Structure formats: structure tokens, C-alpha cells
Amino acid sequence: MTDDEHETTADPTGDEPAVSDGGTASDGGSIVDDDFPADGVPDTPHGDDHGLPPTHSIRRWFVTTNHKDIGLLYTVTALFFLIFGGLLALLMRLELWAPGADFLAAGSYNQAVSAHGLIMVFWFLSPLAFGFANYVVPLQIGAKDLAFPRLNALSYWLYLFSGILMGISFFQGSTFNGGWTMYAPLNMPVYTPDIGGTTTVLALILFVASATVGSVNFLTTMHRMRAEGMTLRRMPIFTWSILLTVWMMLFAFAALLAALMLLSSDRLIGTAYFAESSPGGAMLWAHLFWFFGHPEVYIVFFPALGAMAEIFQTFTGRRLVGRKWFIGAMLLVAIQSFVVWMHHMFLTSINLEIKTLFMATTIGISLPFDLMVFSLIYTMLKGKIRFKTPFLFGFGALVLFILGGITGVFLGAVVLDYTLRGTYWVVAHFHYVMVGGVTGLVGGLYYWFPKMTGRMYDETLGKVHFGMYFVGFNLLYFPMFLAWETPRRVFEYAPALTGWHQLSTVGAFLLGSSFLVMFYNLFKSAFVGEQVEGQPWDFASTAEWTVPSPPPLENFPGVPTYASGRLEFEDGGSAQTDGGAVHGKAAALPGSEVTETEHGGGESHASIWPFVLGAGAFLVLLGLSGLQRGYFPEGTMGGVHIGTAIVGGVLAFGSLVAMTREKFHGPEGPFGESWPFTTVENTKLGLWIFLASDVILFGAFIGAYVFSRVAHGWTDWHHLIPEAHVVLPGLINTYLLLTSSFAVVIAMEFAKRENRLGVVGSLVATVGLGVGFLINKGIEWQHLFHIHTEAFPAGWDPGTNIASTTFYVTTGLHALHVIVGLVIAGYMIFRAWGGAYMGDDEPIEYFGLYWHFVDIVWLFLFPLFYIV
Amino acid sequence: MHGGLLLQVAGQLEPDGNRAELFGTIFEVFLVLGTAVGVVVIGYMLYNAYRYRDDGTAPAEETEDIGRPTLGELPEGGGHGRKLLLSFTLSAIIVISLILWTYWALLYVEAGAAQPAEPEMEDGTTVDVTGYQFGWQFEYPNGNTTDGTMYVPEGERVRIVVTSSDVMHNFGIPAFKTKTDAIPGQTTSTWFGPVEDGEYTIKCYELCGAGHSYMTGTVEVIDAEEYERMFVEPMNSTNASDGGTERVDPATAAGGSSAPSVGLPADGGVATRLPARTAATEGVLRA
Amino acid sequence: MSRTKLYTAIYVVLFVLATAQAVVEQAGYLEESYWLAFWAIMVLSAVKAVVVAGWYQHLRWEPRSLTTLMLLGLLGAVALTVAASYSIL
């Protein structure tokens, strides 16, 4: 957790600055130098990159924590998943060549449908955007790296391993085959019994962990580490789109995590959240999923919008029209995205009042997009438009998005939605929007490719790609509007529609093959393309273009500042040596005399532990996937599963410990602007942001309880609970937790007064009380498991009914939080015994923030599950 | 301005019947307006992209003083703010009035789906539908049930109350433009008709498992009096279903045959029943 | 030292409030007037939560932006719970 990052920032390693000789040549001097190495800094002979191996070394990519390397890894991995998801789509299109299951079996078709959706939405779209975000955002805001570089690497490794886990699920009987929306109760093991289905759910959990770690990291960075003068309002539009995206991710993915954890509990332990016997089960899933799912649409689309806006500005040579309105519109959408989710549920049993309300919010959220579209269009006026590949894709994306938007208005009219729902109208609409977004991101890929590689792509091939892409796209998706009466996710359709579907299939192959052109172009150009300087595009204005391509490890030749209204590097001369010569690329760059200063040195860039931690988490989940109804399969397979989980657990735990012991020095803010968290130190802010997402996680668990109870009849609930379930154990546990919170506060006071024994004593008390909490809970659970009453002859276990399910799982999640807290506290006792924290109560304070949060959660669980 | 015009159209559309016609009218209006807006906006885009293409003149030679973005500047907005807000307002008016206009139709559709205050006030009939993997079961006012084929009276409106006995399904009859979710533990209701004589297809619109593509059924429109005798009047020996002749086996369904069609209910004992499912669904339907 | 005293006083208050919640149940108020007692118990929980967050987590002394951040999360969770529950009423 973020706590770990803090432990080690205090003590930077010895191999810090010392960059003043060899490395600098590649920074400043190479800009006008033809033989500037494509790989940038690492190829230079000085060989001291803070322990980071050169780029041609495989080892580098396993240990790197640098945001630019991580950005490349994200981009390449995401493109791999594009191929994976794309091939599945081609299989579907082949199947749809003619009505009937003539190519794939019915089950296989459902697998392809489900996995295509999941992979494209989770493992391709967002990660591609995050490749750019990783690469570009720190440069645009003037930061040397993200706030927590190792957590950034961890995000990537969790992402990659979650994708591998998803791939493995295909070989465990069948991957999840109930659609990407994973509706209940089809997602229950009764209906989708294959282990692969469980693995898919666990892979998603791992992905969400990656996204949450990433959100915390980006939010801390973007709020705390902006250069002087780079206020929030002045941030470049792409950075703005990412800021809002990560805010949405923080909250939306927490809700998805809750949904997935409840589902895993159903699949692994045999609880009954989404069972058809739970009166609100199917609706509960729909609510949780879409509460996440609608913001997810914008999470996926915003970065594309941001990239399009940057591309429009650069290639039209105009500033974005109505920039502040554009930002305001995005902000409005980001907020509103959390109150439109039920428009995905208009045909379910929700009442007319709520339908009306959500129809209104849905209209509300469509309007800001009108503004953004017009803003982009008007940006072209009086421009000097150059139809380079990035602009073609950006422009094409806007056209596609307009078509997607217009067809979306149809769905906003509830009465039309009643008929269009579940048909290819919906399929076509959201592909125009989502793949429209992909189009914008592909534009971004061409746009930033020279920055990332230092070489230019082949323009002709880029244009060929666009031509094939745009024609293929419309050939693929437009016929779907015409064949809209086809139900979604079927392969049996009315023979009259065969022609449209065949056209669509042809388009799919054209679209798919256009990417072959792109891969060839980019792969070849990355090695032999024409070398570029810092800024290959006229009129590009953002900070990433002021540094060499690719930028040196520490990004800037000095401390970037916008205090004068323009980017300048302190101790490094002006970024704008000649204000008038906007066309001179080199003129806009720092002079070659620039030398690296102490500001540039000191950060660590290498750690293997994020990778090991990712691998450990992967093995744990792979092992757990075998669990069904609380039991591992009999025989060897069970042993393999258990063994895998244990090995993974050891790896994960070991790497966490190693990360806290490792000496690692990340960049610390503030560097200028850090509103609105000016006085909140990075680690503390990261922890608070994480807790905010945890609020949603617990909130969704409690919400699931409230919803299930309402569906059952609130005051009838008591019939589902045995008499033996009484207030007292809950009350005792409330006392225990409150006292332990108090003990942490006292520990802080002792630390301030440098009383070692006092600190150790109060931490021991905290742990003791926490352990007491768990023991008390254990006794209570044992008792309830084994009661024999008339109503519950076979005991009251997690799977007995929806009341027992909500009770055990919600308080169980809380107990897990307690256990994590105890492990951290145990580690801190060990440290305190050695004399840590004397006069430095911050680590104890941060632990306290977490521990008090766990306490607060219990303050609500106690009345909800023990009293009312 | 726009709004007033649309309200007038809404007046003409004061709905009095068929959902399919209602859908058709609204869909058409949306299609025409949507196409018009699309053509205008995209046309305008293309025109400007062409007009302001880079023709090779250097910025210094530009006649007007146009501020171009420069490297390292703090981002700021370009002009045309008024134009932007104007177009935005215009588009907002179009979208809001369009959707509000359809809200009338929504209320009309919802009213038809709602439970009538008194059973006698109901015009037409109510059929309870239960989806299962992979077929449909229908229960009529007198308790008779059929499987795979839904019988409805000609010229009357049919209200349907839909649920599921296993996973989520979605009951849809494309010809009538009617559709509603079948959710276990919940009921939804909607309606269609009045319908003309004929046979129509029922489809499932929610992925429900391997047999989803084949989960179809038939609507058979029969003479209203016949319907009354078979499915509304209290059951007796002449119209009671014979209890358990056939049930749709998911395996055969997945093999390609759609649910078996039962013959015309002339001889009394035609309706098929699902003995295995009845116990499970009875409670839900009757609740 | 006064800090320690303040923290101790807060601890006593929390202890008492938790006991009060159990008392409400034991005294049978839930049977008597369910919803009144329900909201009384929930308000007691909310008060305890505010006290812990404000003093033990020091939100009182932090920039308001942190409080806003947590309230945003809470708002989202409450919106989900209330709207979802209302939708099936």
C-alpha cells in the first residue's frame, strides 16, 4: 500500500546525482545532433541511470519504474490485447456470415462474444489510454515522474498478469460466457460452472486492483506535482481529460470491485447474493454493474477526447475554441456519469418515477457532448489544417462520434429504447462511440509515436491505414443499423438480413487488416524511421514537445516553471529562446549548454518487486480459481490449486516486505502548484484517496445489503436470521475496536514525545485488541455455523440465505481489513522496537488513518447487522 | 419555436392504439431529424476542413493576425465563444424537445402496462409469461398454460406479466415492437396489440446461455371468442390442459428445432404444460 | 498533554454512544416504534463516525479538500444505495 512508499523515501541511495558528465550530452546537445540515438539516454555510454539497465536489456523492462518506460509497456501490451479481442471479433463475424451455428458451437460463440467485450473494454481501451497518460501527463504538468513510481510499475504488472489470467481462463473448460455485462444469475456457477468463468472474474478483480493503484497514483501526482504556474485551469486538455478519467476510475472501479468480490464470494464460497432465490439478486448485479458501467463509458472515451483536442489544436494551428467551456462540460459529464446508470435498465422492474428521473439525467449528460463536438469543429475555423495521419484519425473519430451520438439520442427516448434494447441498434451505436474513441486513440498513437521513439512513422502508410480503417469501420458497423432487428449475441437471425451481416463481416476484415498496415509501419519506423527532434509538428504547444524525443530519464533540463506565463527551465535557461520563431523547432528547445543539475538527480528508477508482487498476486488468484462452494477439487488438481495459491501468497508477501525495506527515492512535491492539497504530503494524500475508493467499496457492500433487504421486505428480514444472532458479540467488538483506535492515537502522542516503550506498548495494545476482535468474531461465527434450530436445522452458514450471505460477507470484508491492519501494525511494532518513529509520528499517523477508517466502517456495520 | 412545433406533432400523435405504429412514427421522426442534423454537421465539418486546409502560405504572410499556438505556452482558449454557445443552445433545444415529446408516448405505454385498478376495467387480456432456459411458458386468466406458443385474442390488447424461473431473459415480439425483461424474483409488465390474425415470432433478447439463439416462440392470434372459451372461462373438461404432454428439452432446442407448436385449441386438450416447472413458477406468477 | 486528555474524552463519548445504541435495542424501542428507533440508532452511528473522522483522523485540522474528497465517496455510495433501493419499491 501507499504506506510502504513512504517508509523508503527518507533515505535516498548513494548512487544519485553524478549525472553531470556523459548523460547530459544526450539531453541538451543531441537535439540538433543527427546521430541522436533512437533509444535516447540509456544508449549513451555513461551507464549510470540510477540502477536502470539500458533499453536493449530485457532486464530493464522488468525493473523499470520510470513513467515513460511504463507508458511504452502499457501501449505495447494494450495493442497486443487489441489483437486478441480483434481476433475474437473476427470469429464472431465469420459465424455471422450466415444464420445458424455453422462455424462455432453455441457455447464457443458465447465465449467469443463475452471475452471480446471484456478484453476490448478492460484490457485494450483503458490501458492504451493509460500508455499515453503515463508517457505524456508528467511531461505536460512538469513532473519528473509519478508520485509513486513503484506503484506505477505495480499497476502495469497487475494489468499484464490480469490479462494473462484472462487468457488462461480459456483453457479451464471455458472462459466466462455470460456476456461482458455478466448479468446475474447467469453468472452463478449453477449456470456457468466452468472454472474458467471464475478465473475471468478473478482476472477482472486483478485488473481493478491495477486500475485503483493507478488512479491513486495519478491523482496524487496531478494534484500535488504540477510545475509552478501550471494551475488546474491551465492544464493542457489531454491532462484534463486524464484527471477527470482517473477521478471517475477511482469511484467507478471501486463499485465494480464490490460487484466482483460479491460475485467471487458466490462462485468460490457458495454465497447467495446473485442466486435466483435471492429476490433482488439479478437487479442487484445490474445496479452495481451499471453504476460502474456508465462512468466506464466515459473513462474509456475521455482520454480519446483529450487526445483528439490536442491533435485538433496542433494540426489546425488553432487554440481550442471555448476551452474553459470544454473543460466545464467534461467536468459536468464526469459528475453526472454517476447518476445515469439506470438508463441501461429501462426494461427491468424499476418504477416509472425512477425511469423518468434517469431519462432526465441522461438527456442532461448528452448535452455537454454537443458542446464539445462544436468546440472541436469551430477550432478548425481560420486554421492551417494539415492532413497528417494523426489529424485524419482525429477528424475521423469526430465524424464517427457524431454518428454515434445521434443514434444514441434514439436510445435516450425511453419509448424507443423499449424496442431498440437488446438489438443491433445498440451494438452499432456503442461501437460507433467506443470504437470512435479507439479512432481518436489511434490518432494519439501516431501523434505521440515520434515522441516515444524519436523516429517518424511512414506518412503514406499512415494514410493508407486511415483509408482502410475508415472504410472498414463504416462497412462493419453501419450495416448493423440497417440490420438492427437482429437480437444481440445470437448467431441465428432472420435470413432477410444476411446481406447486411455479410457486408459487416467484409468490413470487419478490412478494419482488421488495416491494423496490419499500422503494425508494420510502426514496428519498422521504430527502428529505421526518420529521426526527429523534440518537436516534429508545427504549432504543437504542450510541454512534451519542448524536450528531446524520446525525453531523457529525468524529463527536463531543469525545474520547469510557467511563472512567466511560458515554460522555462530554472537553472537551465528559457524554453523559448526566441519567442517569434514558432516554426523553428530547435529554437523552442533548451540550449545545448544546459547541464543536468541536482534537481535532475536523486530519483530511483529500478525495482524488481512490483513485478514479483504482480506475479504473486497472479498465482494466488490462479490457485483460488479452483475453489467452489468453499472446497478445492479432489485429487491432484486440488493440490495444484492450493500449492499455486500458497506459492503466490509467499511471493506477494515477500515482495511487499522487500518493497518496504528497499531504498527507493521517488520524486516528492510540491514543485509549484498543488491545489487543493497544498499542505497534504504525497503519501498522506495517496492514502486518503485510496480510502475514498474504499468508502465506495464498503458503501457498495452495505448498499448490496440494504438493497437485498428492501427486495425481500425490510422488516420481514428477521425471519431469515436465527434467534442466536444477538447484539452482544457486536457490542463487545465495537468496544474492542474503539479502544484499539484510541491506542493508536496514544501511540502517536508517545512518538511525539519520543517515548519508545510507550509507542511499542500502545501498538501492542492495538494489535492485541484487534486480535481479540477477530477471536470474538470467530467464536460468534462458529456458534452460528453450527446452530440447530427448527428454522435452521443445518446451521446458519454463508450460503443459507441472503441474510446470512450479506452478514458473513460484509463483516468478512471488514475482518480482512482488520487483518491487513494487524499485519501492518505488527511490522510497525518491530520497527518501533528498533527505535523508529521517535519524533516522527507520520507513519503512525498514516497507519492510524487506515485503522480509524476500519473502525468507522464497523460503527455502521454494528447497528446494521446486529441491531436493526 | 422548435418545441412548439413538436408539441403540435405530439398532439396529432395522441396515441390511441398500436404500439408498433407508435414506435414507427417516433422512429421516423428521429430518423429524419437525425439524418438532417448529421448531414448538416458533418457537411459543415468537411467544408471547413477543406476551406482551411494548409495551402502552403507561411503564417507571416497571413493577412489577418491569427494567434497560433506556440511551443511552451500555457494553454488558453481560442475565439468563437458566442458561436459555440449558440450552436450548443440550438442542439440542446432539439434534443430536449425531441425527448420530452416522446415522454407523452412513454406515459401512454406505461399506462397500458400498469395493473388495472379493477380487473373488470381491463380491456383485453392478461397473460403471465415465464422464461426458462430455453423457452417460454404462458399462463392464461383461467389457469391454463401453454408452452412455446402464446395464444392471443384477435383485435384485443394483450397485457403481459413476465418473469423468469432461472436466469435473466428478455421477452420480445419484434412484429409488435414490444419487449420486456424476464427477471427471476421480479415481474415486469408491458402490452401489445390490438393484433391482426396471424403467427408471429417471439425472441429472447438477453443472453441466457448456450441455447439463447434458439430461444424462440410463436404468437398465434386466434378468434376472440375461441380465446375466451379456452383461456378465460373457468376450466372444465373441455378446456383444461391435459397436464404434461410435452416439455421443451433444452438439448433439442439447442439442436435447432424451435419450441413445438401445438395445434389449434379446438379439441380442448391442446395446451401443453410444464410439470417440472409449474411448482417453481406457480408461486411467482400467483404472488 | 491536553491533546491526550481530549482524545481520552472522545474515547469515553464513543464508548457511551455505542452502549446507547445497544440500549435502544434492549429497551425494546425497535418493537415499539421501529423506524424512530432505527433512525436514532443510525444517527448515533453517524455521530460516532464524524467524531472519529474529525478528531482521531484529524480531518478537523486538515484542508477541507480532504473532507470533501471523503464526502464525495460517501455521496456516491449513498446515491447508489438509495436510488437502487427506491427503484424497486
Describe this entry's structure for a reader:
The complex is a heterotrimer of chains A (868), B (287) and C (89). Chain A is mostly helical and 868 residues long. In chain A, the strands form two sheets. Chain A has a two-stranded antiparallel ribbon. Chain A has a two-stranded antiparallel ribbon with strand order 2-3. The longest helix of chain A is centred in the first third of the chain and has 36 residues, at 106-141. Chain A folds into three domains: 67-528, Cytochrome C Oxidase, Chain A (Up-down Bundle); 611-661; 706-867, Four Helix Bundle (Hemerythrin (Met), subunit A) (Up-down Bundle), CATH 1.20.120. In chain A, a hairpin with a 6-residue loop joins strand 2 (559-561) and strand 3. Chain A is 63% helix and 1% strand. Chain A contains 23 helices and four strands. In chain A, helix 7 packs across helix 19 (682-712), helix 11 runs antiparallel to helix 12 and helix 19 runs antiparallel to helix 22 (802-833). Chain B is of the alpha+beta class and 287 residues long. Chain B has two domains: 2-51 and 81-113; 123-286, Cupredoxins -  blue copper proteins (Immunoglobulin-like). Mean pLDDT of chain B is 79; it is low at 1-15 and 242-287. Chain C is mainly α. The chains are: A mainly alpha (868), B alpha+beta (287), C mainly alpha (89). Chains in contact: A-B, A-C. At the A-B interface, helix 5, helix 9, helix 10, helix 11 and helix 12 of A face helix 2, helix 3 and strand 7 of B.
Outline the fold blueprint:
The complex is a heterotrimer of chains A (868), B (287) and C (89).
Chain A: H1 2-9, H2 22-27, H3 58-63, H4 67-95, H5 106-141, H6 149-169, H7 195-224, E1 226-227, H8 237-269, H9 281-316, H10 323-336, H11 352-379, H12 389-412, H13 414-420, H14 424-453, H15 459-482, H16 498-528, E2 559-561, E3 568-570, H17 609-624, H18 635-661, E4 672-673, H19 682-712, H20 728-752, H21 756-785, H22 802-833, H23 842-867
Antiparallel strand pairs in A: 1-4, 2-3
Helix pairs in contact in A: 1-18, 1-19, 4-5, 4-6, 4-16, 5-7, 5-9, 5-14, 6-7, 6-17, 7-8, 7-17, 7-19, 8-9, 8-10, 8-19, 9-12, 9-14, 10-11, 11-12, 12-14, 12-15, 14-15, 15-16, 17-18, 19-22, 19-23, 20-21, 20-23, 21-22, 22-23
Chain B: H1 2-12, H2 19-51, H3 81-113, E1 125-132, E2 135-139, E3 145-147, E4 149-153, E5 158-164, E6 169-173, E7 178-182, E8 188-192, E9 198-204, E10 216-222, H4 224-232, H5 250-254, H6 275-286
Parallel strand pairs in B: 1-5, 4-10
Antiparallel strand pairs in B: 1-2, 2-3, 5-8, 6-7, 6-9, 9-10
Helix pairs in contact in B: 1-3, 2-3
Chain C: H1 2-26, H2 29-32, H3 34-56, H4 64-87
Helix pairs in contact in C: 1-3
